[in-house]
Amino acid sequence: MAKKQRIDKILSNIGCGSRAEIKKYCKHGSIVVNGKTVTNPGLQVDPEGDEILFNGEKIKYREFIYIMMNKPDGYLSATFDKKDPIVLDLIDPSYLVFEPFPVGRLDKDTEGLLVLTNDGQLSHRVLSPKKHVPKTYYAKIDGVVTDEDVEAFSKGVTLDDGYETMPSQLTILKSGAESEIELTIHEGKFHQVKRMFESVGKKVVYLKRLSMGKLKLDESLALGEYRELTEEEIKLIEEK
C-alpha cells in the first residue's frame, strides 16, 4: 500500500491541473474515489490502492518520471536561472508538474545524454562518488591527441586545482590538427573532461555525452528532443 496523500496533490502531480483547479473540480463533482464523489480537496487517498476517477476516467497514478533528453548547446542543466535558458524550458508542461530535475549536469555548451527525473534516491545513487557510474563522451579536440595522452589518462591526470582523477579510458577516433576521441570517466568533477585535456595541453572544442552507466543516448532524438525511459533503461543508468 502506498503512503496516503491529498487528492489534490495526487491529481496535480499527474497533470490534471493546479491545486486551485483541482479544488474547483471537487466543487463540480468531477472527482470520484471508490465510488464516492469527493468534495474535499484535502481528502487523504491511497493513490495505488484506491480507485480514482477524474471526469469519469480512471487515473493511473505514478510517483516518478524518468526522461532522456538529447541536450542542445546553449541550455543550462538547471531548474532555474535568471539569465540563461534551462533544459526545463524544452519540457512540456504535462511533465513539469512532476518537478523533474537533471541527474548531474552537462555544461551549457555540451550536448548529448541528459537524464531528468523527480526520483531523488536514484539521482543520489547515480551521482554518489562511491558508485563510480561510468560516463562516456565524444569530443573534438584542438590538437593532436597521442598515445601518450591515452597512457596518461589510463593512470589518472592532475587537474588545475591539484585533484588527481581516477583512471579513464581514452580512445582516439581520429588524430590530427583537430582530433576526435571517446572518453569514459568514472567521476563527475566540474568541467572535468575539458580540464583533463587542458592538463595535457589541449582544448576541447566540442563535447557530447553518449552514455551514463549502460544507458546510451537514443540517437533518433534530435537536439532538444526527449522521451520517457523504459523500465529496462531506468535500470541501465546504474549499471557499470
Verbal overview:
The protein is an alpha+beta fold. The protein folds into three domains: 5-58, Structural Genomics Hypothetical 15.5 Kd Protein In mrcA-pckA Intergenic Region, Chain A (Roll); 66-129 and 215-236, Alpha-Beta Plaits (2-Layer Sandwich), CATH 3.30.70; 135-212, Alpha-Beta Plaits (2-Layer Sandwich). Helices cover 21% and strands 28% of the residues. The chain has helices at 7-13, 19-27, 93-96, 120-127, 147-155, 192-198, 231-236; strands at residues 5-6, 31-33, 36-37, 44-45, 52-54, 57-58, 66-71, 101-102, 111-117, 135-142, 169-174, 178-185, 203-212, 215-216, 226-228. The strands form three sheets. Strands 7, 8, 9, 10, 11, 12, 13, 14 and 15 form a nine-stranded mixed β-sheet that branches. Strands 3-2-5-6 form a four-stranded antiparallel β-sheet, with no helix packed on it. The model has no long low-confidence stretch (mean pLDDT 95).
CATH fold type of the largest domain: Alpha-Beta Plaits
- The shape is elongated
Helix content: 10-25%
> Which class of the largest domain in CATH terms?
Alpha Beta
Major pleated sheet: 9 strands, mixed
